[in-house]
Amino acid sequence: MAGTSEKDQKTELPTQKKLKDSAREGDVLMSKELATALMMLAGAGWLFAAGGWLVDSAGELVKRGLTLDAGDIAHFAPGEAVMRNGVEILLPLASLFALAIGASIAAPAMLGSLGWRGKALGFKGNRMNPLSGLKRIFGPQGVIELVKSLAKVLLLGTIGYQLVAHSLPAIMSMAQADLNAAIGLAGRAVGHSMLAMAGGLVVIALIDVPAQWYQRTRRLMMSKQEIKEEMREADGAPELKQAQRQRAHDILSGSARKAVSDATVILTNPTHFSVALRYRPGQDAAPVVVARGRGDVALSIRELARTANVPILEYPQLARAIYFTARAGRTIPEELFVAVATVLAFVFQLERAMADGLAQPAVDVPVTHRFDPEGRRQN
What we know:
This protein is mainly α. It has helices at 2-9, 16-24, 32-66, 70-74, 78-110, 130-138, 140-173, 179-219, 224-235, 238-251, 255-261, 296-307, 316-325, 337-348, 350-356; strands spanning 265-268, 273-278, 288-294, 312-314.
């Protein structure tokens, strides 16, 4: 019952991560019928295109093998003869072999399953389990394979019968034709047969590929809990994120913590960047960057600022400009004086501005100091 309940819970389609992980283990979308159809099509195409080449090469080989003159006896060199004749017959056969290899590679490539997966070659104990083997044979997968085999035999048998019935008169007439005509007739008959069989295999492949996709998808279905756990692993569990924030907080707990507490204002992105500025009239010649950070460090700066009651304002473009052009302990670039002065004037009158319901002022960041979140200039 527990197994049935778990299976019933798997109602969600597999995620991309699940599909990639299963592919690394060797569970990929495959169709033997598609590979067979492509190889048969390649063979039929080769026979029509290069069959004459093979027949001519074979004919020349037989002719030279049956021809003997005085020169052959006087200069008897069997090795040379084997090399010369062998190369001539092997060239067309090598082209056929290369075409077959290409067709076998094309099948998984068309399904997006081409690649080396070392884990699939590793030893797996369940493959040696006879019970698992019996389950595959007599289970739903075995029934599907049996139906496919019967359908294949029925379809290809029908095609073969029609071909023989159609070609029987021509086959019977070969006995009365000369050798070259008979060979040509036989070649065309074999080519047409292979092409017809390939057509039948293509039909089977068009049915098999969606069936294989459906079976694999059903096999990799996930429960809602599995998807949640995968998302936790991808995004980071809340406990892990809290630990990362605590580490960032600890990093700022020394001199940086005091610097943030002494800051005049915190400028944010609002979430990815934080810049702490200090300006004491009469003491600082220009605004000083006392702390800066991105990600969890930026979050820690904001948390420390809230604890110390330091104003936090959202100025994304200005925060990025300061982050990418000034280091902690340095004054801000002169090009940003006007923009920062506008912000500081608002901060120094923040209580009155809040009482009057005034919005924070807009600032203009020079074009030369505009950055995207990755630090690329936006000139």
